[in-house]
Amino acid sequence: MKSAHLDYEKVDKAVSQLSDEDLAKLADRSRQAQADFAAGRISNTAIILIVVVVAATIILVTIAVQLNHS
After folding, report:
1. How far apart are CA 58 and CA 11, in angstroms?
2. Chain Cα centroid distance, residue 5
3. pLDDT on residue 32
4. Considering the domain boundaries, does residue 47 fall inside one?
5. What domain range includes position 64?
6. Residue 44 lies in a domain
7. What's the pLDDT at 2?
8. What percent of the chain shows pLDDT beyond 70?
9. pLDDT value at residue 10
């Protein structure tokens, strides 16, 4: 997270704002991506897409939390 210049506390707080359903979906996607990667069934393009989606989710949640506290 340091290389992405993300503050751990903000991300932690933002993630805690996610609903149980959203967390379950993210966990399921993460497990599937990990299984695909371990099995060699995932391309470099898919890895980049996963990283971008996760980063975008974290950024959007962080922005939502900041707007909620304004």
Report:
1. 7
2. 15
3. 86
4. yes
5. 8-68
6. yes
7. 64
8. 91
9. 80
Calpha distance 46→58 (Å, rounded): 18
Instruction: Evaluate whether 17 touches 58 at the Cβ level (below 8 Å).
Output: no
Among 18, 6, 1, residue whose Cα is nearest residue 68: 18
The neighbour count for residue 52, using CB atoms within 10 Å, is: 10
Q: Tell me: the pLDDT tens digits for 15-37?
A: 788 888 888 888 888 888 888 87
Q: How many domains does the chain have?
A: 1
Alpha helices in 1-70 (DSSP H): 8-16, 20-38, 44-68
Residue 39 inside a domain? The answer is yes
44: number of Cβ within 10 Å: 7
Q: Is position 3 within any domain?
A: no
Percent of the chain with pLDDT over 90: 0
Torsion of CA 17, 20, 33, 59, to 10 degrees: -10
